[in-house]
Amino acid sequence: MSDPRTSFGHAFSDAGLIEQALTHRSAAGRHNERLEFLGDALLNMIIAEALFARWPRADEGAMTRARAQLVREATLATLARGMDVGARLALGPGEMKSGGHRRDSILADALEAIIAAIYLDAGFDTCRRVVLDWYAPLLAELVVGKVEKDAKTRLQEWLQGRGRPLPVYSLVDAVGDEHDKVFHVLCELADPPDSAPGQGSSRRAAEQAAAAVLLARHEGRRKSGAGAGS
């Protein structure tokens, strides 16, 4: 395995920064939560700036959807796996036994922490260069205005287009340790009356999952010709 100090497209001057970035809260020592907070903000800024420059005629909605797709947990986790971040993580015994090094939420958080570590070690210009190198293939694949809206937005528009009440999302439960919760929500429709559960590593992710179930259910009925009132 390569040295993490010279991995990820940057050679660290301060080895302590990358060590902290790769240390999960469950492990002993300084962990990466504060770095994750900073890295999240930096990533959003870098991707927003890149989209603004690449898509001079795109409207705010198109750029917002593209950014959301690029910075979401699943995308970050995929990038982290490509860089073998999981194998380098310092985890507590419980997280090691439960396969924490493979979990999307932990991998995504670690990658955000690495972004912050690069920024603190070498400044914004270097950080931006490295992040854009990671994202180059993903940015190249995006087509202006063709990024699909998220499930909550599409469900809302589907209902509004039929003059029906908006969905109601309620938190059913949140289980697990404070730093690694799984959220369970319920999405309910008044017309047509229906509901679906969803779960995710954040409340928003769980709401998106529930909305996707309902959207697929009712769009499927429409395409099959079943349920004329749907």
CATH class placement of the largest domain? Mainly Alpha
Q: How many strand elements?
A: 3
Q: What strand order characterises the main sheet?
A: 1-2-3
Q: How much beta, percentage-wise?
A: 5-15%
The residue-averaged pLDDT reads: 88
DSSP summary: helix tally? 10
Rounded Rg: 20 Å
Low-confidence stretches: 226-230
Characterize the structure shown.
With 230 residues, the chain is mainly alpha-helical. The chain has two domains: 4-141, Ribonuclease III domain (Ribonuclease iii, N-terminal Endonuclease Domain, Chain A, Orthogonal Bundle); 151-224, Double Stranded RNA Binding Domain (2-Layer Sandwich). It has helices at residues 15-21, 33-54, 60-71, 73-82, 85-88, 93-97, 104-122, 124-141, 151-160, 203-224, and strands spanning 168-175, 182-190, 193-200. Strands 1-2-3 form a three-stranded antiparallel beta sheet. A hairpin with a 6-residue loop joins strand 1 and strand 2 (182-190). The radius of gyration is 20 Å and the shape is flat. The model is unreliable at 226-230 (pLDDT under 50). Pfam families: dsrm, Ribonucleas_3_3.
Distinctive features:
11% strand, mainly alpha, disordered C terminus, nuclease, mRNA processing, 56% helix, Double Stranded RNA Binding Domain
Question: What is the structure about, briefly put?
Answer:
The protein is mainly α and 230 residues long. The chain contains ten helices and three strands; from the N terminus they run H-H-H-H-H-H-H-H-H-E-E-E-H. The N and C termini lie far apart (55 Å).
